[in-house]
Design goal:
single chain, 125 residues, alpha+beta, four-stranded mixed sheet, two-stranded antiparallel sheet, 3 helices, 8 strands, globular
Length: 125
């Protein structure tokens, strides 16, 4: 029997956040979109049931289909053959971004991450 490693949620989060139009990963309305790991969660990335889902916030004024295609293209090589769903949860203007109205999950190369919550957005870890 062959054991296949599940996709790495931290690597997926980092790949998504490298996309220029993406301003953050989004945990869903109630923070339910996450991958649960020992002692922490990767918010906005859900690896379960043989699928990978990424939920994100993007900049206003850019066409959404190309953004979703670019995100999918970045995630597919990391998904170990699993289908990839891209969900754009929120579209934010520059003034909303300046006011801090986004939940941003940042990931570093070593897999560490941090979460910052702005006004009106749910971001729990």
């Amino acid at each position: 029997m062959t054991i296949v490693e599940p996709p790495d949620a931290d690597q997926i989060a980092a790949a998504v956040l490298r996309q220029p139009a993406v301003v953050g990963l989004h945990g869903g309305r109630y923070g339910e979109v996450a991958t649960y790991l020992p002692g922490r969660r990767v918010i906005g990335v859900q690896v379960e049931g043989g699928r990978v889902a990424v939920h994100l916030s993007v900049r206003y004024g850019l066409p959404l289909h190309p953004i979703a295609a670019a995100v999918r293209g970045a995630v597919v090589p990391l998904a170990h053959g699993q289908p990839v769903d891209v969900v754009i949860e929120d579209v934010l203007t520059e003034s909303e971004l300046a006011a801090g109205r986004v939940a941003v999950v940042s990931a570093t190369a070593d897999g560490a991450g941090s979460v910052g919550a702005g006004a009106g957005r749910l971001a729990a870890q």
